[in-house]
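Two folds, back to back.
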Amino acid sequence: MQFPESWLREFCNPPLTTAELAETLTMAGLEVEELRPVAPPFSKIVVGEIKEAVQHPDADRLRICQVDVGQGSMLNIVCGAPNARVGIKVPCALVGAELPPGDDGKPFLIKVGKLRGVESQGMLCSARELKLSEDHGGLLELAAHAPVGQDIRAHLDLDDTLFTLKLTPNLAHCLSVFGIARELSALTGAPLVQPQYPSLSATLADKLAVRVSAPDLCGRFSGRIVRNVNTRAATPQWMLDRLARCGQRGVSPLVDISNYVMFELGRPSHIFDLDKIHGGLDVRWGKLGETLKLLNGNTITVDDKVGVIADAQAVESLAGIMGGDATAVSDDTRHIYVEAAFWWPKAVAGRSRRFNFSTDAGHRFERGVDPSLTVEHIERITQLIIDICGTPDTACGPIDDQTVNMPAAKPVTLRVARAAKVIGMPLSQVQCAGALQRLGLDVAQGEGTLTVIPPAYRFDINIEEDLIEEIARIVGYNSLPTTPPLAPITPKLPAEATRSAFAVRHALAGFGYQETINFSFVEERWERELAGNDTPIRLLNPIASQMNVMRSSLLGSLLQVLKFNLDRKAQRVRVFELGRVFLRDEGVRNTDTTVEGFHQPMRVAGLAYGPADALQWGRTEQGVDFFDVKGDVEALLAPLQASFEPGNHPSMHPGRCARVVLNGRAIGFVGELHPQWRQGWDLPQAPLMFELDLDAVLARSVPVFKPVAKHQAVERDLAVVVAERVTHAEVMAAVREAVPGGLLRSAVLFDVYRPKPLRDGEAAPAAAQVGQGEKSLAVRLTLGRDEATLTDAEIESTVQLVIAQLKERAGARLRV
C-alpha cells in the first residue's frame, strides 16, 4: 500500500514528524517498509510564464523565449523543447539553481551562458530534468492558474513523502488512506476528519434491472445510472498526481475516479458503459465453458467456482476482480452504470491466481471490504463524475440498493485478566476499554469482561485473541515490560540409546551422499506410481497446479533431484533427504504435535547413481549395484544388525528389492528402480534407492562391557551346494541354529560359484559337482569358547551339526 503523506494528513494530522509518524505506524503493526521523497532535492526553480517565443537565428530547433518569473523584468532564455510557446507556464530554473544529479551523480548548476551566440539567463525544465517522471517529450506544462514566481516545490507540493506499507492480510481495513488515518487517530488521539457523502437528488427515474442469483457470492449490490457524461474530459492534475503517488497511472477520467475512490476509501467499484449492457445484469456463479475478455486483454474460461456479472447475452465482468472489455467505458461513452458491491471474501479468494494475474480490487475483496457503505461510496463517485465529466445535460438516477446476504456481526468477549496474562503486563478494565473505544469499537462492560460487536469494516475480529492484539497495538508494543523469564532452564538430554538426526546426516555425508531439501507437496503421478497411493492427501490451495498432493514417500523427490542433475551432465549422483511424509491414519488424534486422521512420520531416504567410486586410479570403474547401497544401509544402522528379506515396493524392481527388518520389525526398503519408472523418467541407468523410518535409524543399543576372549578361536571353511532359490539369509539362519552354546563367533559368506550356462545341445561335464540351477556357497565359521580351548572332537561335532542343519533346512550337500 503506497500513498503520499500529505493525503493522509488531510484526514488525520497529528503533531509528529514524518519519521515519528512512520515509527508510530510500524509499532502498531502497520509496517512502513519504505519512506521516499516525492522529488529529489533542488532549489531556485520557480513558476515562469513564456511571454514571447521567437526562432533562434542560427538554430532550427532552438527558440529564444522571454519568460516572466515575477521579478519585474523578463528573462531571456534559449530553449529547444518542441512545446515551448507563448502563454504556457513551466518550471524555470534561475541562475544559481541546482538541478537534481544526472547520470554522473553530480548536481547540475545553472549559470548564465550562450547558445549559438544568444545569452540564456536560466533554463526551462521538463519533468525528467526535475526527476519527477521519465517524460522527456517537452517542458512540464503547469496549470494556467499557477502563480508566476512561486517556488515549484510549493506549487506542486514536492516536499511530500511517499509511504509504502507492508500490511498483513488481517489489516484489510487499512487498505485505504482513510483506513490508515482511522488507525492513526486511534494511536495518537489526533482528530479524524470524517468524509462526507452528500446525497444527490435523482433527476431520472431510470434503473437498470439487476438480479443477485448467488447470495453466497454477493451480499449487497448497489448501482445507479448516470446519463450524458463527457468521457473526453481531462482528469484534474491533482487527481492524477495523487494516483501517481499511489503507484497508479492515469487512464481515463471515469477509470481514474474509480481508482481514486478505491485508494481514498478502500472501495473497489466498476463503471459500465450502459449502452453496451444487453437487458439487465445477473450476479451469479459462472457456467462451465463461458468465456470473458477482460480489460487487460486476456480471454479466460470460467466455471461454476468463479463469480461473474452477466447480462442477457454474455458474461460482462469477473466478480470482485476485473471488468470485461465488452462493457468498458471509452471516449464515445455517454451513459454509464456505476456499481459498488459487497463480495464475500471466500468467493473471491484465490480466483485471480487461477488466471495468473492479480488486481487491486481482488486484493481488497478477498480480505474484506466494508459492506455497509456501498450507497455512500456511490454518492462520492457520482459527485466526482459530475464535477469532472459533467455537462449541462448530465442527470443521475436513484441508487438501486439490493441487500441479500449481509455478514452478521458476532459479539466477541474479552476477559481482562486473560488479556493481562497474554500481553504480559498489568492492565485495568478501564485501560482495555479505552483502547478498544479509541479504535471505534462499541464496548459493553461486564464484571471483568468487555464485549465488542465488530464494526462492518473489521473482518479480522472473531475471537478473544483478536481483541487482545488490538489492545496490545494501542497500548504500544514498546510499552511492554522487558521482564526476563523466570522458568528454570534445564537442558534436555537425549537418551543414551538414541542418536540425533544430525548424526545420521553426518554419517550419510561420510558415505559420500549430499543432502537435499525438497517440498513436501509433490505431483499426484509420483504418489500413484512410486508409492502405490491412489488416495493421496490433496492440498486445498497448492502453490502450483502440479504440486497438489502431500508426499507419502521421499523417493519421488530424490528422483527429481537425480533428473535435474542428469540434465546438467552429472555422471555420478549420491543424494539423501531427511523429511516428513504424510499418511492417512484414522487412529491419530489431535494433539499439540499431531493432526487428527494423519500420521506424519520422519523418514530418511537415499539414492545412488553412476560409478561406485569417484574418479580415481586404484580401481577399475564399476557401476553402483544393489550390494553397494545395501552396505551403506548396514553401515548406517550399525552396530545394530538388520536382516534383508525379498520384498515388493511400487517403485522398485520386483527381483532386486529387499525389505529391511530390524529386531523383527520392517523399517523400510532398499532396491533398484523399477524398469517401468526408469523408462518413464528417461534415465540411462537404473538408480539404487533406500527409504527407512528415521525412528529406527536413530535407535542405538547401549554399549555393554564384554571381556576379550582368552582362548584362540578356530576357523573352518565349508562349501555347500544348494539350489539357486536358496537365499543367503536361509543359509545363515541354519548355521546359527545348528551351533549350540554360543560357540559360533561369526559366520561369513566368502565365495559364490555358479556353473557357466550350457549352450543348446551341450551336455554337462560328468565330473561337475554343481549342476545347472545350483550354486556353491563357501562359508567361514569362526568357533570359540571363553572357558577353554575347543577340542578336535568338539570342533568336528559342531561342523557336522552345521552340515546336517544345512541339509535339513536348505537342502544343501557338501561340496568335496
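---
second:
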Amino acid sequence: MEPGLRLLIQLVLEFAPVIVDLIQKRSEESLTTTNYLLPKVINEVVKAGNIITQNDNSGSSFEQTKLLQQQLAVYQRETQLKVASQERETALNLPEVYKIFDSWPLRLYPSQILEFHPNPGRTPLKVFLAPPEIKFDQFEHRTDGISEIELMLAEGLRKLFNQHYSLHNPIRPTEFLAGAWDSKRFHSESSIKAVYGILKTEPILILESENDGDYLNFRIAYWGFKQDKYYYKTIARLSYKEILQESAKSRALEWKTIRDQLLALGENLDEINLLGRDNVFNLAILEKSEKWQSQGIDVSKLSLQYQVNHQDFEKLCQVLINCHFLVAAWVADIYHLIHHDVPPLLPKLLPSLLKDALDLQSVQAIASGYKQVYQALEQERRYWVPELALQLAHSLSHLPDRSWAQEQIDYSIYIWLELRQVSPQEFANSLEAMQSAVRIEDEEYFQKLKEYFTAVNDRQSILSVDKLLDAIANLKHKRTLETANLKYTLTGHAGKVTSVAVSPNGEILVSGCADKTINLWNLQTGKLIRTLTENWGEVSSLAISPDGNFLAVGSCEHPKSNVKVLHLKTGKVLHTLLGHQKPVNVVAISPDGTILASGSNKIKIWNLDKSDACGGLCQRICTLWHSSAVHAVAISLDGTILASGSSDNKIRLWNPRTGDPLSTLNGHDGEVKSIAMSPDGQLLFSGSTDTTIKIWHLGTGKLLHTLTGHSDAVKSLAVTVDGQTLISGSADQTIKMWRLSTAELLQTLTGHSGTLNSLALSPDGKLLVSGSTDQTIKIWQIVLS
C-alpha cells in the first residue's frame, strides 16, 4: 500500500474518534453553559418525534425545526467568534518581547498570524509544516544540493493547497504557512504547547515529521475553533530509507529494460554500463538479492545498500508531499464540515492523488471516518445529516468501486425516513417508502439524489426519484394558499374597539371598547348576544380562560385601573384585582389556565385557580418590574415563560411563577406593541411602532427574521393553530398574512378605516376577528384557494 494512503488510513483510525469525542463534549457544554433556556429548546429541537406530529403533513414544522438547528449552529459559532476575538485581543496586547519567545518555534509573530481573514465569519484553518531533518550524508553517492527537502516539500504542498484548499477559497479557506516553522530549532511537545498557549483562538494543524534513524515519526498537532485542549500524537512511522531504496530498485529495473534493448541492437555491454552509472550497481545488488531469496535466504537480514541519486530524493519528496497533503486535506475537511457545514472534498481528489493505489478496504476506512463525524453531529444537526451523507456519496461516486458510496446513500435515506417517522419495512424499498412522506421542501434533496443516481448510472433508482419529483410537482400544483374573505362587519360600539377574544368552543366573540362596554356576539352568525355595562371604565384588553368559563377584563381608565374576572356566560363579576397605579394596557391568561397576567408599568401575576372559581384564590403571586408602559404580554404553553413588550423598545422574558427576569431581547427601534408565540413554543413574534415584525428564537433570544411591509405601528399579532401563518394588524389600517416557512407575504386585507387594535382566531382557524378604532369588528372567513 502506498505510504501516503497508509498514513491517511492510520490518521482516520486514530483521529476520527477524537473528533467525535470533541463534538460530543461541545454539544454537552452547549447544553449546560448557554442561556438558561437553551438546554430545553435544543432537546426539543433535536428530538424530531416531539416536534413533528403524525398529523402534520404541511412540512412547515419540519422545515422550521431544520431552520432552527441551523440558526442554533450559527448562533453558537457567532458566540465563539466573539469570545475568540476577545482572547485574540488579549494575545495581541502581550508584549512580543516576553520570555515566551525564547521557546517560540515560529518565524512569525502572533500579531502576524492573528490578522483577520477578509471573511471573519469563516475562520480559515492554519496549517504549519515542521519538516524533517534527514541526515542525507549517510547515503553514498548522493548528489549535492538535494538536502533542501524542506523547500521541495513546501513547494509541492503549496501547489496542492492553492489548487484545492486555498486561503481565498470562499468555501474551505485554509492558510498554508510554509517556512513559518523554525524546523532547525524546535520539535515536539514543548513547541506545540508554546504555540497553543498563544494561538488557542485560531484553528491550527501542525504537520510534524522527525528523523529517527532510518525512519520518520509523523505527528500531527491540532486544535479546532475554541477547543480547550490540543491533540498531539504520532500517527505513523515511515521508513524513508526504504522509500529511497525502493525508488533505486525501480530505476534499476527500468535500466535493465533499456540495457536489454540496447544489447539487442548490438551495442557493447561495457559501453552500455558506462551509461548506466549507479543503475548498474543497483541492478547487480537487486539480481543477487532475488537469487538469494529464491534460495530461501532472508535478505532482510542483510545490509543491502543501494546507491541513491536526485531522482530517488525527488520520489521521497513526492511521497512526503502526498502524505502531508492527504492528512491535511482530511483534517481540513473535518474542520470545515463541523464549523461551516461544508461537505468533504478529499474523496473527490483521492483517485487523482493516489491513482491505482486505492482499494475498497482503503476507501471504506477513509469514508468510515467521515461517517463517524456525521453520526456525532446527529444530536445537534440531525436534520442536516441526510444532505451531508448524500454529499459524501457524491464525493465517493467517482471511485471505481461504488459500494461505499451506496452505503452513504442508504444512510442518508434511512435518516431522512427516520426524521419523518416512516418505517421502510412496510414498503418494497426505501425509495418507495419516501413516497409516503414527500413534501415540497424536499425538492432540492431529491434533485441531488437524482444527480447521484445519474452519476452512477442507476436507471431504476432514477425512475423512482423521478416519481418523487413528480409527486412534488403535483403538490406544487395543488398547493393551498391561506386567504381570507370578509364575512361580517359588526357595528354596535360607540368608540374604538380595543380588544377582541374568541371562546375556546368557537361560539362566542367578546369585544371590549373605549365606550366602557363589552359585547358578546355569536361568532358564526354575527348576532349580538348581550352587552355588559358594568362599571368597567375604558376597556383596554380581554382574555378568556382555556376552559371558556372566565373572562378577564383590563381597564385603562385611571384611577379606575383594575382587572376584573367575571363568569363569561352570566357576566357576573367574580373578583376585582386591585394594585395597579397606572392604566392596565393588557391582560393575558396562561394556556393552562392557572395564572393571569396584567400589565401597566408593571406586570402583576395572579393565581387563577379555576377549581375554586376565584373564590378568594385570585391572589397576587408576584410583580414583574418594568420601568415603562407594558403594551403586550404572551405566556408559553407550559406557563414557564412570560414575554412582555414595552414602550422602551425592549422585550423581556420572565419566569412568571417566581418573578425572576430571564433575558432581554433588543432589536426594535420603536415601542413594542404586540407579542405572540408559536403553538410549539419555539418562536416569539413581536410587532412595533417601527413598522416591523420580528421573529425570535424563544430559547436563545436569537433574532431569526424581520418582516417588513406595514407602513405604521404593528398593534396586534395572531398565529394560526398549525403554526404556518402569522397574521398582523397595523395602524396602517391593514391586516397582513405571512407564511412563516418562507417569510413571504400571502395577502393584505383591507376594509377597516382605522387602526387595527386587536386580532383573534377561532379555535379551528377558519375565522379571523379584527377590532378597530373605526368602531367596527370584522369577521373574515379564512379559505383555501
